[in-house]
Design goal:
Shape: elongated
Number of strands: 0
Radius of gyration: 17 Å
Distance between the termini: 41 Å
Structural class: mainly alpha
Largest sheet: none
Helix content: 55-70%
Order of helices and strands: HHHHH
Strand content: under 5%
Amino acid sequence: MLIGDAASTSDPSWGQGLSLAVRDVRLLRDALLADDDWDRAGRAYADGHDRGFAAIHSAEDWFTTLFLETGPIADARRERALPLIASDPDRVPDTFMSGPDVALYGESARQRFFGEV
């Protein structure tokens, strides 16, 4: 069974590697304790792992796009999004602090973050 960066890596710029490795250990432990069929438990772990990494990867991509990209398009994106974020901090997905199981992500969350709605 692979956990942490061996299972999937996150962008180290956003500091999620150790948290995700510990989360994987917890998910695997819980799956093994919940089911005597280790194949089924392994699949349950893998599903939880994949959902979590999908959320983290989405948030990392969004943060990289908004805060690290350069050029006129990136500047215009920040000019639109940052004032909205300043007036409504809930526009920022809390994935990095609350974890992938709590934070909302998806197209509507992406649109709010980038100030498209």
